[in-house]
Design brief:
mainly alpha; single chain; Four Helix Bundle (Hemerythrin (Met), subunit A); globular
Amino acid sequence: MTPNQLMFAIFSAVIIIFSILTVTSRRILRAATFLLFVLVATGGMYFLLRFNFLAAIQLTLYAGGIVVLIIFSILLTSHIGEKLEKPELKKIIPAFLAAAGGALITIATILQYNFPVEVVSMSERTNIRVIAKSLISTEKFGYALPFEVISILLLAAMVGAIILAKKRKD
């Protein structure tokens, strides 16, 4: 087993284990921490595939920003020591069947798709300047406007969480 295959196996195991822990944890702060491990391992997977720019975005935006925002919201709005209620069996079975059905459809689709192999020379690869211009552009294929909309949405969510936290008097 090569070092790349070993790292792929480690990242895959971390992603699978902590994804399951994220959705099955009854403590919300632990679930957010498990989500952080999933997002960091996903960034590691991108580094392994040599998608350095995507890995940097994954780590800074998702693992850095979104998870901190989620944890900050949790700290503002709920009691950390509380446990979520254990779900009833009549809710667990349909949820498990839906998850298993979705996993089977996804696996079947991936196995049936014929992935074409393209050989791209170094001169044909996308230049970093093209990526940077598309990130700051507001034109058709630009990303500046979606990032601004998401930032406003996250700001509204934080303001709403603060208002909800302030209204409650225990």
